[in-house]
Amino acid sequence: MAKAPMRETMAAMFLRQCGYDGTQTVLDPMCGSGTFVIEAAEIALGLLPGRARSFAFEHLPGFDRAAWDAMREPAPLRDTSLRFHGSDRDPGAIRMARENAERSGVSDVVQFEQQGIETLSPPEGPPGLIMINPPYGSRIGNKAPLLGLYRTMGNVIRAKFAGWRVGIVTTDKELAKATGLGLELVEPTVLHGGLRVGLWRA
Fold first, then answer.
1. How confident is the model at residue 1 (pLDDT cuts 50, 70, 90)?
2. For tag attachment on the chain, is the N or C end more exposed, with fewer CB atoms within 10 Å?
């Protein structure tokens, strides 16, 4: 797994908290294993969550297998002209993101490329949503060096992404504010990997 991965359910929740409904493109410039990008593509295509896994409630005595199988019957895929974009400076993360997209059945509508955030540019088409789960000091390293990273994120977004909405997941108000994007915290925060993280959006 890529460093500090995010669960699919949590990624979908944060997308929903940003008002995402599958009608806009999503871009993640620190995509890691591609979770935000893949979840956005699945929502746009109408792919059902949990379609390839089993659940503990299936072993309960009153479990209705026929009803559950009917609920899990695949729906026809929705058409979308959107493309979903992820980038990361780590080539291993990009390789993993592409493999995950293939397994999820969304490889035709996603694009991953190795790239640092400093050279990021918006894809063709109308503005969409930028979703980022960047490093935060208590998770991977010291917070102080990360302030520059968050400032760079904010500078690039302000300079090149007019009209785009932004969602950033972090543990730290100071890091969120360092972007200069006027981000506001969406309550409540949630536990992720033993840390309490929140969505900051603009």
1. very low
2. N
What is the radius of gyration, based on Cα positions, of the chain?
18
List 46's β-bridge partners, or say none: none
